[in-house]
Specification:
Blueprint lengths: L1 E6 L5 E5 L9 E12 H12 L2 H7 L1 H14 L1 H12 L2 E3 L4 E8 L11 E4 L6 E5 L3 E3 L6 H4 L2 H14 L6 E5 L3 H12 L3 E6 L2 H9 L3 E4 L6 H8 L5 E6 L7 H9 E9 L9 H5 L4 E4 L28 H13 L9 E6 L3 H10 L5 E5 L10 E3 L5 H4 L6 E5 L3 H12 L4 E6 L4 H9 L4 E3 L3 H5 L5 E4 L6 H10 L3 E4 L7 H16 L6 E3 L7 H9 L7 E7 L18 H17 L3 E8 L4 H6 L3 E7 L4 E7 L9 E7 L2 E6 L3 E5 L7 E2 L7 H14 L7 H24 L1
Parallel strand pairs: 9-10, 9-12, 10-11, 12-13, 13-14, 15-16, 18-19, 18-21, 19-20, 21-22, 22-23, 24-27
Antiparallel strand pairs: 1-2, 1-4, 3-5, 3-7, 3-16, 5-6, 6-8, 17-20, 24-28, 25-26, 26-27, 28-29, 29-30, 30-31
Helix pairs in contact: 3-4, 6-7, 6-12, 9-10, 15-23, 18-19, 21-24
Length: 717
């Protein structure tokens, strides 16, 4: 199937062939008939993409600060690599789609195959959308009208926050799609409306909807116009739907308002606010969040849990329905807002129109419902035919084409002389991007094809944490060698299942290897440190990780999906302690910081104490409450009068360790490439896995125990 995305680094709009997306639990698979290019939002994205690095930096100063902090901690070259990779990732375009339900996921009862629906789906022939972002279309509403629903809900939510009453005077700044729909809904609500825009045609269109209008730049002062419009009282409210870097809209809005007036920001404008503008009139200012309550809430969108109507009357889904009802009874008309239409194969012309015609409003992308490639696996034309048949001992399949896989794992495996055969992801678009970049032969959304492909003898698992154990077990059962990103498992039951699958594989005479991505073992400075410590003598290890805060709503903190940060990341540091001591773990004790609500809630500001059979002790300080400009990792080893210190895997200092010299690297090296290489070589040579299976189980077990201790402490308190 075809999908439109943008390269953020270049601003190029690309029409690509991608596999059919998976229909996930709680989601709906929709075959598209048309989708809407939102002129304001998408023009802003394309303009940003086409700007140079300096212009991009000026538009996102907060990101620049993060980049500078990363340079301080990780060095210049790794930072450049990270920024470049981030900018070159594909950005799916679009958020207003109409089509026919092709498939419903587990737990979806609201829709059935064949239903005609609207969603916030992308510009693609087939889209997969959470059920709460889908709504049924009334029979008397055409596809070409219904496709404006999502944009209409943005306008409606801004109005709901404004809380207008019958007869109020309200100014709408910016008469694009959202602004013109805002005008209509306000008029239907019995409000007097003044529309402002630089485009005279848009102002005139607002007048046809019953608004008064002023063309900005005509020489007339908009504040004075608003004053006259409100009969000298000041307007009751201003809704800003414009898109500009200027601070002028908010400043003028405050000047227009009466005392205790309201300003609601729906668009994107400069926000260097002047206190006096708001102080003297006690003006309220609110920023509207997209389609309404539920937006960006994983509990609502991803997990499919609705808010009780008695407590949250208007969710984003119910706003969709309200807009569709207005289309049905003709109280909201959008036919005049459609500027032009292009079929999906002419997507480049559509975006050229968007960039060159600043007066364009609704640009439609149309799709042929009957002529769509519904394959879940596509061949990527990235490898010459003669090279495809080249005999190589390692044939690899990758499951999970996210940021970590694309930025970290794939560059590492790509350096080895192996065949990269199939890349798998749930949505397909990132699989196509990274598949072509690293010269995979196939891109699929059907993960099972990797397990059933007899040529593939190595599987890399880089999915969300809750699927690691499941995919690992399946791969072992199929006799594949497995490289799985940490964590190996989220609980003891999963760990037991992996242990059993590995044992049965060995008993059946299969040569399956299991490797966890504990790459820090393979970092050159860590290898040097390991070579100098005495395994026969106990040591004290202090591992400090300035982990940084991750928002509480992130899936990482979800115990069922991410497992929490101790299982998800701190396992790395427990593993290094195990590696350096060369001794089995006897026990682990964990203590979380209290007092800080976020830290206590997320269990990510923690000290772990690990005891080993040989008498060694490891202390892991995993802190999320530090500053990002401070280096992330520091390992200190104390033994027999010697001290070795490794700073952020770039600088090693030795104090009294015989044979260990202080050294610095030109760039940080956490051992990712060497870790991948060691795994590949073990397959090629038929040798044992670089990390013993028993140690993988051991580290995973005690990581789970540490996390459980923290949870038990919370429950006890």
């Amino acid at each position: 199937m075809k999908q439109i995305y943008q390269n953020v680094g270049t601003g190029d709009t690309i029409l690509d062939e991608v596999p059919l997306p998976q229909c996930r639990k709680g989601h709906v698979l929709i075959r598209s008939s048309c989708s809407l290019i939102s002129a304001g939002t998408e023009r802003m994205l394309v303009d940003f993409g086409k700007s140079n690095y300096l212009q991009k930096a000026r538009k996102q100063p907060e990101k620049v600060a993060m980049v500078l902090d990363k340079v301080k901690t990780d060095g210049l070259l790794p930072t450049i690599d990270a920024v470049t990779s981030k900018l070159n990732q594909p950005l799916p375009m679009g958020y207003s789609n109409v089509g026919i339900v092709e498939e419903v996921g587990v737990g979806v009862t609201e829709f059935k195959v064949g239903d005609r629906v609207v969603s916030n789906g992308r510009h693609a022939e087939v889209v997969c959308v959470p059920k709460h972002l889908v709504a049924s279309i009334p029979d008397n509403v055409t596809d070409e009208v219904a496709v404006f629903t999502v944009v209409g809900s943005i306008a409606l939510q801004g109005i709901r926050l404004t809380a207008p009453t019958l007869g109020e005077c309200i100014v709408v700044m910016g008469l694009g799609l959202i602004g013109l729909m805002t005008v209509q809904i306000l008029r239907a609500n019995g409000c007097r409306v003044l529309g402002l825009d630089y485009d005279v045609d848009k102002v005139n269109m607002a007048k046809t909807f019953g608004a008064a209008g002023l063309t900005l730049g005509s020489g007339e002062d908009p504040v004075h116009t608003a004053e006259r419009f409100s009969r000298g009282r000041g307007v009751d409210a201003v809704i800003i739907t414009a898109s500009t870097d200027s601070n002028e809209p908010v400043h003028n809005a405050a000047k227009m308002c009466r005392k205790n007036g309201r300003i609601v920001l729906v668009g994107v404008v400069g926000l260097n606010l002047q206190r006096s503008d708001f102080y003297e009139k006690e003006i309220s200012f609110r920023v509207s969040c997209s389609y309404g309550p539920g937006r960006y809430d994983p509990f609502y969108e991803d997990e499919g849990n609705d808010y009780p109507v008695g407590y949250v009357r208007w969710t984003e889904n119910r706003n969709f329905e309200a807009v569709l009802d207005m289309f049905s009874d003709k109280s909201l008309a959008v036919e005049k807002l459609q500027s032009c239409s292009f079929d999906v194969d002419s997507a480049s012309k559509a975006y050229d129109k968007l960039l060159t015609d600043k007066t364009a409003l609704g640009i439609l992308i149309t799709y042929d419902l009957k002529n769509i490639n519904l394959s879940r696996t596509i061949v990527l034309d990235t490898v010459e035919p003669e090279l495809r048949s080249e005999s190589k001992k390692v044939v690899l399949g990758l499951i999970g084409a996210g940021n970590h896989a694309g930025r970290t794992l794939l560059p590492a495996f790509h350096k080895s002389d192996i065949t990269l055969k199939t890349i798998s992801s749930s949505q397909g678009i990132t699989g196509s991007h990274y598949g072509r970049k690293f010269k995979f032969q196939k891109n699929t959304t059907d993960t099972e094809t990797i397990f059933t492909d007899k040529e593939i003898n190595a599987v890399v698992i880089a999915t969300q944490h809750d699927s690691h154990a499941k995919f690992t077990v399946t791969a072992l059962e199929k006799g594949k060698n497995v490289f799985v990103e940490k964590p190996l498992a989220l609980n003891m039951a999963e760990l037991k299942a992996i242990d059993l699958a590995y044992s049965l594989s060995k008993q059946a005479g299969k040569v399956s290897r299991l490797m966890v991505g504990f790459n820090r073992r393979f970092a050159p400075l860590m290898v040097a440190m390991k070579g100098s410590v005495k395994q026969s003598q106990p040591m004290s290890i202090v591992y400090t990780c300035n982990a940084g805060a991750i928002p509480s709503e992130s899936w990482v903190h979800d115990l069922h999906r991410g497992g929490g940060r101790i299982i998800g990341e701190a396992c790395h540091f427990i593993d290094i302690c195990r590696f350096l001591t060369g001794s089995p773990i006897l026990s682990i004790h964990s203590v979380a910081m209290s007092g800080d609500v976020e830290a206590a809630k997320n269990l990510d500001t923690v000290t772990l104490t690990v005891n080993f059979e040989n008498g060694s002790i490891g202390t892991v300080h995993y802190f999320a409450n530090g500053h990002r400009s401070f280096p992330k990792e520091r390992i200190e080893v104390f033994q027999s009068g010697g001290v070795a210190v490794l700073d952020n895997f770039s600088k090693l200092k030795s104090y009294g360790f015989n044979g260990l010299k202080s050294k610095s690297l030109f760039r940080q090296d956490k051992g990712i490439t060497d870790c991948a290489k060691a795994f590949v070589e073990s397959i090629e040579e038929g040798s044992e896995c670089p990390i013993p299976f028993a140690q993988l189980l051991e580290v995973s077990k005690f990581s789970i125990i540490a996390a459980s201790q923290l949870l038990d402490d919370i429950r006890a308190s």
